[in-house]
Amino acid sequence: MTYEYERVVTPSTGLRLHLNENTAGCSPKVLDALHRITREQAAFYPDYDAAISAVSTRFGVAADELLLTNGLDEGILAAAVAALRNAGSPNRSEAIVVVPAFDMYAACADAAGGSIVQVPLDEGFTFSTARVLAAIGPRTRLIFLTNPNNPTGQIIATDSVLAIAKAAPGALVFVDEAYADFADQSLVADPRLSAVPNVVVGRTFAKAYGLAALRAGAVFGRPETLAALRRVVPPYSINVCAAITLPVALGDTAYYDWYVAQVRESKAILYDTLDRLRVRYWTSAANFVLADFGTEAGRVIAGLAARQVYVRDRSRDPGCEGCVRITTGIVEHTRTCLEALEEVVCGAA
Ligand SMILES: *Cc1c(COP(=O)(O)O)cnc(C)c1O
Fold this sequence. Notes:
alpha/beta, Aspartate Aminotransferase, domain 1, 12 helices, globular
């Protein structure tokens, strides 16, 4: 079995609601900062002090409790290499992935030489602590938890994360909080983490902050736990554009707050429309909504694409037959999507 990341090819024009990006773009202040980069800054290896200090202030942790990464993807890869190294056969180290899940967990665990143990969610996509606990074995080295989950938008209770981490002291528990900006809970700086040294928390600046193309993420945890990941990440992994704009993006809290509020409103109007169209969906704590169009899924995706609205087919994910994931960005974009969706669902080809 191969675990390659499925790269989605999408036209450059039209409404991109398939990768959970910030549909408004980055803060205008980020662009100003990019314009001010000097020739020397482009020529010299970057310094990360300002970026680390901005992230440490924003999340309320010490500088040695965070690791900047080239997007959170690199944090996932670093965790996989750190936890699964020396994975060698015949007793291969295992990574537990709760499915449906973000593709990169299996892709990175596989690349690091580990084997993947898939644990399904419960009925209705609720997280099953018991199933994860039952999957933990002597070869478990890494456990990926996504909070809120992608593609379902569902939350994992903090107590579940703590129970799993306690039950697997020999494994690294990677809590992916890529969408926590849109939820009202986060484990970063949570004092309860002091009881579970094997937990690290990943964040990205790609989604709420709109820096997906600049590639900026961070992993948080105890210095001694992060040390294994630090050994994997190359010293100049974050490029100067990301390093310079990160403090600017984090500083523009008005822009961030505006965007998070737009997403909340977008979800509300999307739910209204789906209710009216009698389409089943899962209430989401992220910036996207998973909706079940059943046997109509293919027609809906194609009909939206014909109207230049691109959404993500998740129907081949475990338990997601007929499901489509729709990014909820700014309200104006959501309204455009909903107009197209009504046309498609209510008959027109
Ligand atoms: C988007 C996403 C990431 C990756 O973020 P980057 O910073 O762009 O690499 C990680 N985890 C999940 C669950 C995501 O959806």
